[in-house]
C-alpha cells in the first residue's frame, strides 16, 4: 500500500517534486527522517513537510485502528447474574440452573444487546464456574427480541478449566489460587478488557485489562427490603449500608456500559489502546467508593435511555445475526 504526500507549498523547490513522493504505509519514523533529509530545500519547508508527514502517520494509524477487533469479556457471578440467597432477593428475571436460582442483573441483557450491534466488538464470557453450568446460564439468557441467547453471540466461553492455577495451597481463596488469563481470548492485550466483581482475578501482568465493578451487594427491589434484610442479618456485608449503595447497585451496569462506550469512542481518536482508555475513563467515576457522585449521575442520565431503547430497536438486528451464524 502506498501513501501519496502532497506539498503544502505551491511551487516549492523540491527535487524531485514532493507531490510525486510515495511512501510505504504504514510510515515509520525512520522513513520520515530519510524523506526529510533527502529534500533539497530550506529548513522552513522541511519543517512543514515534517508536520504534514506526522499528520499522515497519525491519520493512517487511527484509520487502521478503527478496524481492529475489540474484545469485551464478562464475568458471570455477581457481574451479570447473582445467586439468590433468600426470599427478599427473589425479584426480577430468575433463572433456575441445577437446583439453584440466579437473578439476572439489571441492564445486563440490554448492555449485551447494544454491544453485540457494534461491528468491531466481540463478546466473550469468563467465569470460574463449571463449563456446563456457564453454558446453560448463557443459553437461557435470551436477549431482547426473544431470538438470540447470550451463548449464540459469544465469541468464546471460558470456565474454571481455562483458568491458570498459580498456587496449590488449598488454604487460599479460589481467586488467589486460580487466575483468569484473557490472553486466551486475544493475545493483543491492548484490545481486551474483562468486567469482573473480583479485583484480583486476573494474572498479575493483566491487571490493566480489568474493569472492576467495585464493591457489589445483594439485589433488593426496594429500599424497604434492604432495611428488612439488615434487620434480620445486621452483619452481612453484602447488604447495602445505605440508599446510595442500593441505588448504585441497581445502576451498576449502566455505568459499565457508559465507560465502555466512552472508551470505544476515545480509542478511535487517540493513540492509547482500548484497555488504556477504559482505565482512564473509569477513574472519573470512582467505582471503588461504592457511592453515587456527580459524574455517575450524569453518566446514568445519559445512558439509561439508550439502554432502554435496546429492548425494541435491535430486534431486527439480532434476528439477522442469529440467522447468519
Binned strand content: 5-15%
Largest sheet, described in full?
5 strands, parallel
Dominant shape: globular
> How do the SSEs run, as a string of H and E?
EEHHEEEEHEHHEEHEEEHHHHH
Which structural class matches the secondary elements? alpha/beta
Beta strand count:
12
Task: Give the full name of the CATH homologous superfamily of the largest domain.
Answer: HAD superfamily/HAD-like
Using only CA atoms, what is the Rg?
A: 25 Å
Q: If helices are DSSP runs of H or I spanning 4 or more residues, what is the number of helices?
A: 11
Trace the largest sheet across and list its strands.
8-7-3-11-12
CATH architecture of the largest domain: 3-Layer(aba) Sandwich
Query: What's the CATH topology name of the largest domain?
Result: Rossmann fold
Helix content: 40-55%
CATH class value of the largest domain = Alpha Beta
Q: What's the number of domains?
A: 2
Q: What distance separates the N and C termini?
A: 33 Å
Mean pLDDT: 83
- Report the uncertain regions: 1-29, 55-64
Identify the notable features of this structure and list them briefly:
325 residues; Rossmann fold; three-stranded antiparallel β-sheet; 11 helices; 14% strand; globular; disordered N terminus
